Amino acid sequence: MVTVADRLLTVNQVAERLGTGLRFPRRLIEERRITFVKVGRHVRIPESAVEEYVSAHTVAPIVLRPTAAYSYRRAA
């Protein structure tokens, strides 16, 4: 949810924060996959929306335990 205290980021700032090119956040906006605010003809993305997007798309690692079928032998 967007609050008044939320800092509004430009597309360039979002791209830098995500470590992507400009095209990626623009595509998120075009496909309505991220919350954005129209300020006149300008588009701004709330910081909280970027944080929500990252947390929603974060994949936790799977911890595998060694089994009897798998051993730690040296290769060749």
UniProtKB/TrEMBL annotation:
* Protein name from the UniProt record: DNA-binding protein
Keyword DNA-binding found: yes
Q: Which residues form the Helix-turn-helix domain?
A: 8-56
Q: Which UniProt keywords apply?
A: DNA-binding
Looking at the keywords, is Transmembrane helix present?
no
In terms of InterPro entries, this protein maps to: HTH_17, SinI_DNA-bd
On the tree of life, the source organism's domain of life is Bacteria
List the top taxonomic levels of the source: Bacteria, Bacillati, Actinomycetota, Actinomycetes, Kitasatosporales
Which molecular-function annotations from GO does this UniProt entry contain?
A: DNA binding
The record ties this protein, via Pfam families, to:
HTH_17
